[in-house]
Design goal:
The protein is 49% helix and 9% strand. It has 13 helices and seven strands. 50% of the residues are buried.
């Protein structure tokens, strides 16, 4: 984004929270790929990544049966080996009650629902809030909301923050994940600024999230790093610990381990837990399971040996 094209309010916020050193960020994340993780540490990382996955289906053709199958995979990602359940299943609001029925009590798997006119966020606020309340009433433990990127880029920052605050209130006891849709924010400076807009009004245990998975560019180590550093800086200033969820485009165990290295080196071990870090990457699950089976048996199984996961949002 050309700085001169930014609205004055956005420029002021960027000046307040600090510019991002793009070259520095890219150099730092490139080093994550050079870290070597062996045997016991690798198995721990793979298992931890499995436990952080939000297993997702967000299609117009979703059915109660498809959601039930998703929930079965969420509870038990593979028939052999000691592989943990995933963190959550993520569905549209109309499918929340079917997920609740399929998971039953005591599964440990949470139910997340996208809301607020996902993925565009282009609906009247009252409609978006009604959708959030309905999803929570149906049994959602978590809400994944999208910010109004048009308002953000137009410099209507108070409006964006007020809308996030209204969703926080509508969530009640449910945790909130605020989706920035980083590909539409166009620059690291804007991603950092949007992160702070959300961080200043969300609660301990809520999350910021990169993407809907519905655009061309989703989670990268670069935009993940910018958001992790915003979480770190906010935590150091306020003591409020927010979570992070990169979503879309993370498909291999190798990538997931690099993201976990970024978390450990930026935020520390306290964030290496699914209460503070998630992967919105359903397609990732099968590769994580495949790699765990390889560590257990010493041999790779063919990819078709594992049941298919859903989408990567």
């Amino acid at each position: 984004m050309v700085v001169n094209a930014q609205p004055a309010a956005l420029r002021r916020l960027i000046d307040e929270v600090g510019n991002v050193d793009q070259v520095g960020v890219e150099e730092r994340v490139a080093k994550y790929a050079t870290r070597s993780i062996k045997k016991t540490a690798k198995v721990w990382g793979l298992r931890t990544a499995v436990s952080m996955v939000d297993l997702t289906t967000l299609e117009g053709k979703d059915t109660p049966g498809k959601v039930a199958s998703l929930c079965a995979k969420a509870r038990r990602p593979h028939d052999t080996g000691d592989i943990p359940a995933v963190a959550a299943v993520c569905v549209y609001p109309s499918m929340v009650r079917h997920a609740r029925r399929a998971l039953g009590e005591g599964s440990g798997v949470r139910i997340a629902s996208v809301a607020t006119a996902f993925p565009s966020g282009q609906a009247p606020l009252r409609t978006r809030l009604a959708e959030v309340r309905a999803a929570v009433e149906e049994g959602a433990d978590e809400i994944d909301m999208v910010i109004n990127r048009g308002a953000f880029l137009a410099g209507e920052l108070g409006r964006v923050q007020d809308e996030i605050s209204a969703v926080v209130e509508a969530c009640g006891p449910a945790a909130l994940k605020v989706i920035l849709e980083v590909s539409e924010l166009e620059a690291y400076d804007s991603i950092r600024a949007a992160s702070f807009l959300a961080l200043r009004v969300i609660r301990e245990g809520d999350f910021i999230k990169t993407s809907t998975g519905k655009t061309g560019l989703n989670a990268t180590l670069g935009n993940n790093q910018v958001m992790l550093e915003a979480i770190r800086d906010h935590y150091l200033a306020t003591g409020v610990a927010a979570g992070m969820k990169p979503a879309g485009g993370i498909r291999t165990a190798k990538q997931a381990l690099q993201f976990l290295i970024a978390v450990k080196e930026t935020l520390g071990d306290a964030w290496l837990d699914n209460t503070r870090y998630r992967f919105g990457a359903s397609a990732l699950l099968n590769d994580l399971v495949r790699q765990l089976e390889k560590e257990r048996t010493g041999a790779y199984q063919a990819p078709f040996y594992f049941s298919e996961a859903a989408e990567s949002y």
